[in-house]
Amino acid sequence: EAQLTPRCAVQIVARCAQTLASVAATHPGPEPSDVLLDADGVVRLAGFVGVRARSPSFRDPADCDEHLSQVYRLGVLWIWLLTGVELAAGRDESGHRAAIRRSLERITLPMPDRYRDWISGCLAYDPGMRPPLSRLTTGLVDLGKTCAGPDLTEWARTHVPDVQRVSRERLRLEDSFTWSELSVAAPLTEEDVDDD
Questions:
Q1: d(Cα 11, Cα 3) in Å, to the nearest integer?
Q2: Any alpha helices (H) in 37-132, and if so which ranges?
Q3: Sign of the four-CA dihedral 87, 82, 29, 11
Q4: What percent of the chain is modeled with pLDDT above 90?
Q5: Which residues are CB-neighbours of 39 under 8 A, at least 6 positions away?
Q6: What is the DSSP letter of 146?
Q7: Which of 8, 19, 86, 178 is most buried per CB count within 10 Å?
Q8: Phi-psi region of 65 (alpha: psi -120 to 50; beta: other; left: phi over 0)
Q9: How far is residue 119's CA from residue 130's CA, in Å, rounded to a whole number?
Q10: 91-105, 123-137, 154-168: which has the minimum mean pLDDT?
Q11: In 10 A of CB 194, how many CB atoms?
């Protein structure tokens, strides 16, 4: 499994923010399963099914304005992209800050201090302290330029085909197992039906 670099992670979050800011439809997330990445590094967003996040860890503790809640959920996605672990937010503001600090400590890759500040800003307990969605669209693009390592396009060309190949092989194995184990049921007869 190839770990995303901080540069790739911020580029994914920036592209999700751009999509959310440019569409009129409501979106509850995005959660990791909503983010689709192809081998050319193109990010697409799925899951336009309402305003409430499906996973509890992606729910905004403030349950506020849709766009500020999306900023929060983008922060949770960002943490997940870097650590593979969902944010376990605290029930109050101090517990929430402690959860963010623990999540940031899990990130072992080098990144500018400004990077951690952006994540913390997106995850702020007080929605008024979060950057607006419109500011994320440009701010995160600029932030990505300050990070070392390959950009998302380079990373995807190297790693996504391998992931797709493994997924296709896994699906082929599951399909062959499923179909070979299925048996066709005989239709019911009157004797099979109990009239009681």
A1: 14
A2: 66-83, 93-106, 113-122
A3: positive
A4: 28
A5: 156, 157, 160, 161, 164
A6: T
A7: 8
A8: beta
A9: 10
A10: 154-168
A11: 5
